[in-house]
């Protein structure tokens, strides 16, 4: 699927979770899916706004979560990408994306592409939701 906007990336990511990660006996915790979609929004928006355009986007179910891969056309690696995840001390209107990504994702790698640009890959953990089984209520 050709993804060109953050909204399209979120929709595609949610579809991959539903169709490939979830099953008849496992659904993802909604809070984890919200975190996943926030990370996707931040990465794709950064590629569009600061990375000279989105060059590629992929979502792959993985052990323990979902791997997100975003490619852009800029060789510049943002300084906060290697930061601690601390939020900016002073509200500047921006600068919150990478700290959020660092806090919500694991196994973050940034590699320069041979023909220019970079690839950012990371894992966003997903946990299975507790399933309510009808008739399994505990007596009061």
Give a short synopsis of this structure:
Keywords: ATP-binding, Kinase, Nucleotide-binding, Serine/threonine-protein kinase, Transferase. The protein has 140 residues and is an alpha+beta fold.
CATH class: Alpha Beta
Structural class: alpha+beta
CATH second-level architecture: 2-Layer Sandwich
The proportion of strand residues reads 15-25%
Round the mean pLDDT to the nearest integer and report it.
90
Q: Calculate the terminal CA-CA distance, rounded to whole Å.
A: 50 Å
What is the helix tally? 3
Question: What about the largest sheet?
Answer: 4 strands, antiparallel
Number of structural units classed as domains = 1
Oligomeric state of the chains? single chain
Low-confidence stretches: none
Q: Considering the protein shown, what is the CATH homologous superfamily?
A: Histidine kinase-like ATPase, C-terminal domain
The CATH topology corresponds to Heat Shock Protein 90
Shape: globular
Order of helices and strands: HHEEHEE
Number of strands: 4
Radius of gyration, Cα only, in angstroms?
A: 17 Å
